[in-house]
What we know:
Keywords: Kinase, Phosphoprotein, Transferase. The protein is an alpha+beta fold. The chain has 7 domains: about 1-135, Globin-like (Orthogonal Bundle), CATH 1.10.490; about 140-310, GAF domain (Beta-Lactamase); about 330-470, 2-Layer Sandwich (Beta-Lactamase); about 475-580, PAS domain (Beta-Lactamase, 2-Layer Sandwich), CATH 3.30.450.20; about 615-720, PAS domain (Beta-Lactamase, 2-Layer Sandwich); about 725-800, Orthogonal Bundle (Helix Hairpins); about 805-955, 2-Layer Sandwich (Heat Shock Protein 90), CATH 3.30.565.10. The strands form 6 sheets. Strands 12, 13, 14, 15, 16, 17 and 18 form a 7-stranded antiparallel β-sheet that branches. A hairpin with a 6-residue loop joins strand 19 and strand 20. The radius of gyration is 43 Å and the shape is flat.
Amino acid sequence: MKHLADLIEANTEALVHRFVEELRGRESLQGLKPSEIITTLPEYLRAVAGICRHGPTPERLQTRRRLEEAHINLRLRVGATQEDVTDEYTLLGRLIPRLWSDARPEQKPCAPELQCLFEQLENAMDHVVVLFSGYTLEDRQREKRFLRQLDALAPRELAAREDLHARLKPLVDTVRRALKASGAELFLVEPDGRTLVAVTNTKSDAPGLGTRRVDSQGPSFLGRVARSEEPLVLAQARGLAASEREGLDAQGFSTLLGLRLWPHGELMGVLCVGFTEGRPVPPQTKRFLETLVEYLSGILDRALLMGKLHEAHEQMAASETRYRLATQAATDAVWDWDLVTNRLTWSGGLHNLTGFTPEEAGATVDWWVAHIHPEERERMERGIHAALQGTQGRWQDEYRFQDRHGDYVRVRDTGVIRRDAQGRGVRMVGAMQDITTRWKTEAGREQLLQEARTARVQADLELERLNTLLHQAPVALAILQGPTHVVELANPRILQLWGRTRAHVLHRPVLEALPEVKGQGIQELLDGVFTTGVPYVGQELLVRLARSPGGALEDVYFNFVYQPLLRAEGDVEGILVVATEVTESVRARQRTEALASTLRTSEERLRLAQDAADMGSWDIQPLTGEASWNPRFRALTGLPPDGEVSLSEAMQFVLEEDRPVVEQAMAEANRPGGSGEYACEFRVTRPGGDGQKVRWISGRGQTHFGPDGLPARFVGTALDVTERKRAEAEARQRAEFEQYLVGIVSHDLRNPLSAILLGTSSLLRRDELDERSIKAVLRIQASAERAVRMIRDLLDFTQARVGGGIPVHCQDLDLVAVVQQVAEEVQVNFPERVLRTVTTGPDTRGRWDPDRIAQVITNLVSNALKYSPEGTPVTVRVGGTGQSAVLEVHNTGDPIPADLLPRLFQPMQRGGPGMDRTTRSVGLGLYIVRHIVDAHGGTIDVTSTAEAGTTFTVRLPRAGVRPPGKT
């Protein structure tokens, strides 16, 4: 291999010159001298030439590697990226072959020489990756080994309802071992798309699986991982706050590393691994985790999809059985008319209805038309042709039809029209129903209506099935000789779709025939089916491909089916692929059919919900006044249990003074152009002696308008709300009485108390009172002052409860000054107690109501003194945190009982029986404190334990106003 070495050595100077010219304009090398761009390139080229001439001896390889390392380190110093440096070696791979571009074939290097050259350049690029990322060849081999282990442990299918712990634990444990972690845990998202639930844990007992749930949008570590595109590290996992630890079984871990599972751009779950020792997580570990989680996501996505497919197969089998039984049980004649070929086919129900067999009816519409009564034939033909030439999707008519015996049966015929993209009718499917009995007599009218509804449902079921079969226009190709080569086409549609010729497709690998789909999962799906032998059914898979070679990529939706072809021995010989393009019109039809199915389900759920909620319902034709009422509505309103009752007759049961209200609400609902919504509460009179002749009814309804804008149907529900109305009346009476009583206690007692306080003050100024009299007067004065405080609390309570909240008048204020003032006033009443004030922050100013804030501090400090042992201090701390000021009142002693904490800030909550009766109040102090704090837009919390004592914490925004929406 001397020829290539001679060329490199003879042209080293020219290669270096071209290398500098090519790289001079690159942004990463701007400002460098030519010598800094060249670095070790001449020596490197001579080293490569020596390897090509004499072979890769250890000494020469060591020299080449040393020169590469020197060059790469120089590039690192000037801020070049990994891609910049690998591009330089790629550039050498283009420049060297140019040396013999115009030479004769015998003068060009041979294939082994080129192989040796390109191996040296590829090794150099691997060296770049190692130096930039620290990711060695051994790391890649280890990664591949663990990925193969995941693949070997992957379950074929997973059902969403099964216990996933045992099935997924080997996979999660493999990830743990790959990362050399102490433990790992997998969470999957629930159907709501938001809640994460623990499904498996590498611990043997797997505590809390299935019960540990966490909001993926919450503040926890798992929630933050679910919202992050990159791996997240929690370096201090010990002693986590409850909000951070929510959902985790993180005991014993010092470091946590988490990453979300995100296939197809949607959250599937979160994987979290833990390390016992505190340690930094290097980039290689994060990148390895990303690779493992991406692979695990694909495994779970495929297994869950196969589980859903298995369930769908079972449901389809059950559905087909029900469809077959329903078709056999149907007594109506179902017909299918191909409007393009004029071919008509009948179901077996024709024999039950007319006595003719489907074979006797023939294959055209002529026999059908000939058996219509002559008096109605022209009208019926005119109506059906008008429907076909119009735009509606349904036709219905009633006429007489001649049976085998020559008699005429009256039938109702309903057909559904299917149209093409231009709106032309191409197919019509319908059902002919015998309505002779109903037509002759009104007896049994309700039963016949039910039969008609059943027939229409059965016709719709058959129509849906026929539409499904009609829509199947697949493109199929067989893939044999392994999961890669296309060897047979079922039809030319695939060539039209791809814009390829047969030579471009047949006997070629899939990614060579269709290179645009590389990286879109097609090859991986084929490999999975070929390896496992399990079929795959996709749902509207989006594929990006070019309609013609070299054309622009387009988004095309397909329904895919991959069916393995098995040999007699049971192994996979090939794969049959069925790919149906889902056009926009088909997708629109699917959405319409799905909406219809949802509507039917909703109607059934509504009926069940009405039964469960004890609701009545009605269905009224507004233009005619005809109405139907279900049994519960009749019982609620006192209507007769049987027989027809018109709307006007039903209105007679409404209390006379309520009828105008009901009529006005119905008129508004039936007004053309309106919303059609009806809501009204009214009273009805019911016959009977049960003492409940007058009942309150709450009605809710909706008017449906026809194409002409007139009301066509008025449906609704009714609920007996008599008990609710009585409760509301009683509540109003209690509230009025409470307000009246509080007014008496607060306002009417204030005057005599003021007189008592004035009198005691006057007596205390007299000199002739002895010590005993002074003590008596002081007791009277203290009792009167306590009564005044109770009255003030009652007034505040009334204002907070029924007056819209306690008003505040904010002004600039220093919280420390208010605390000191209140402390001095309270100390007078408790001279034997120690009251401390501590300032913990530099900024304690804001806009608050000074009187109300003083009231808050007084209540909290007084409570602390009353409920703490004598001889123990009470501490008031004032500080600031950003936009808020913080006030804390702390005392020691017995903690607040656990059963009292949840209702501590509710009214009428007082101390225990052991407290001094002279210090007791009406129990409104903390209730009023909370409302004053709320009025300032702040919060109040309490913690109480035997060890730490009791602390009330008040946080007040400096702005001093209630935030929008706060109650």
